[in-house]
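Minutes, project check-in
Item: structure for the 124-residue chain
Input as provided by the requester:
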Amino acid sequence: MLWTPVRSNVARSINKLLPRQLPPSLVSKPGNLYEVLSRTPDGGIGKFVHQTRWGEKQIEGSYWLVTRSKFKCEGKHGKAWGLLYWKDKLVSPREERIKGSLKYTWNEGPSVTKKVAPSSQAAA
């Protein structure tokens, strides 16, 4: 078992070289639409994105498929276009500008409903 201390020393040395916090491009937290899309190498083209409030409103399987994007101010502002799928059905075959991109919080993937804790009145 001579290799165990060596392995832990190597792991410790590698951890010292890594940054304590991940760079913003690698963090997958929600943000405005442009922050979410600008983290991807291709500007989010082909990605599914949704407003986080859709899940809170029990709207499942709704998302935008991003077809085009232009960024300004280091990816915090810009314009994005895509196809809207509402409850897994394509709303319009024509590419549309994505609205509410700065106003709401966005995340990658289709919307998923949030689990609501049962209220104490419902149990009674």
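Outcome recorded: Helices lie at 3-17, 33-38, 52-56, 120-123.
No further action items on this chain.
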